[in-house]
Design a protein that fits this description.
four-stranded parallel beta sheet; Fumarate Reductase Iron-sulfur Protein, Chain B, domain 2; 24 helices; 9 strands; single chain; five-stranded mixed beta sheet; alpha/beta; 4 domains; globular; Glutathione S-transferase Yfyf (Class Pi), Chain A, domain 2; 439 residues
Length: 439
């Protein structure tokens, strides 16, 4: 793709990155076949190719985007399926991230939209506030019938009331007790083979602390000491994808400091993540902080240490204590794992070796509609994608659904009665841990 940035524009490191990405695009259109919003809506501007044109024009003209441009960028799930499909290696993730920052800095959203985004950006990364919000949502569920339901038509941008209804739809009936706090250390059983930091997470720590507990069980059972780093913060993924660059980078710097200090104190073989949406961003810290002279090198080191828990466990010879060949598992490959981190077969292989019958889901490349806050900000499209995903899952007639991302788990669970658990919960069960309570 031909670009027309001025030399002054190209002096900006972000524009230089955008220019390289744009020039790699050859307009082939392969991305349209695997883009969830294009598959649903059939609008060229709701495809990666169409959005690339909109972003190119916005950046080249150095102007505030129009409401129509914002609509189509907002509809992007950042599922990154287009990056898996693209034969030219277009790094769409870095391009759309930059577009969202530009929108956040130069576009005046309606007041209700600004308020909702501000609340989400403040509450979701803070477990204490998020727990309170979930408690209030549970108390407010009787009011749900008074709010307009989401619509599968995916028409105009949803209003505030439909978004509030989407939040209530996703809120769990009862919250589990909190898990272990930062500063906790879990010693290896038997001879120590390694030492890792485990990301505590934000929403997951409130909604499903059992996931990290299962990871701790598996890891310590196989000789790995696990530490929950005391000064760790939210990974920054949520505000990063909302274009709030300063907040996301501040969180990234704080985590780089915390994990670097822990590595110096006791050594770290890896930083493990059980929420793949977080993992994709942490693995990108090196890029996000590349222009920061103080943080560029340590951020790159942190990114190199970051691993999904399944990625790390693949290096171990897990020893199942019992067979579960009567359990059919539909494995949902989270977009952030399969497209963002290129981890596709490892979780399925781990489950199969642990004795489960693992089934692939048709259209496994398509997003479930969760995508961070997408199922709140774009509930109509999200619901249609969820229903499509659930229908595809039903064709393999599973006993349980496994996934590696809490957002996907909550989204899918809202549309099916089949239990949805994290992959590591099944691995814990297979190697001597408790049967997941949802099964």
């Amino acid at each position: 793709m031909k670009t027309e940035f001025t030399l002054a524009q190209l002096a900006d490191p972000d524009i230089a990155v955008a220019d390289k990405i744009l020039r790699a695009c050859v307009h082939c259109g392969f991305c349209t076949a695997t883009c969830p919003t294009y598959v649903l809506l059939g609008d060229e501007l709701d495809s990666p190719r169409g959005r690339i044109y909109l972003i190119k024009q916005m950046l080249e003209k150095d102007q505030a985007p129009t409401a129509d441009v914002v609509k189509h960028i907002d509809r992007c799930l950042s599922c990154l399926s287009c990056m898996t499909t693209c034969p030219s290696g277009v790094h769409y993730m870095h391009l759309v991230d930059q577009a969202r920052v530009r929108i956040e800095e130069t576009f005046q959203r309606p007041l209700a939209d600004r308020l909702l985004r501000a609340v989400l950006a403040y509450v979701l990364p803070r477990p204490r506030e998020f727990r309170l919000a979930m408690t209030l949502a549970r108390l407010g569920r009787p009011l749900k019938a008074l709010l307009p339901a989401t619509s599968a038509s995916a028409g105009p941008a949803p209003g505030l009331l439909r978004r509030l209804r989407a939040m209530l739809d996703l809120a769990p009936g009862k919250l589990p007790a909190p898990g272990p706090s930062g500063g906790s250390v879990f010693p290896a059983q038997g001879a120590r083979r390694g030492r890792v930091a485990l990301l505590q997470g934000c929403a997951q720590a409130v909604l499903a602390p059992r996931i990290n507990q299962a990871a701790i069980n598996v890891l310590t059972r196989h000789g790995i000491e696990v530490v929950l780093v005391k000064d760790e913060q939210c990974c920054g993924a949520l505000t990063h994808h909302m274009g709030q660059d300063a907040d996301a980078l501040a969180k990234a710097r704080a985590n780089v400091d915390a994990w670097t200090a822990e590595a110096r104190r006791g050594g770290l073989d890896a930083i493990l993540i059980t929420t793949s949406g977080c993992g994709t961003v942490i693995k990108d810290y090196g890029h996000m902080l590349r222009e920061d002279p103080q943080y560029a090198a340590p951020a790159a080191t942190v990114s190199a240490l970051a691993k999904d828990v399944s990625e790390y466990l693949a290096g171990f010879d897990l020893q199942p204590t019992s067979q579960h060949d009567d359990i059919v598992v539909a494995y949902h490959s989270a977009c952030s794992l399969q497209h963002g981190q290129k981890i596709t077969s490892i979780p399925k292989e781990l489950l199969s070796k642990s004795g489960f019958v693992v089934k692939d889901i048709p259209e496994s490349h398509l997003c479930c509609g969760s995508a961070g806050t997408y199922n709140i900000l774009q509930p109509d499209i999200a619901m249609k994608l969820r229903d499509r995903k659930v229908a595809n899952i039903a064709t393999v007639r599973p006993n349980v659904i496994a996934a590696g991302n809490i957002g996907c788990m909550m989204q899918i669970a809202s549309g099916t009665t089949v239990p949805v658990v994290h992959t590591v919960e099944l691995l814990d069960w297979a190697t001597g841990g408790p049967r997941p309570g949802l099964i």
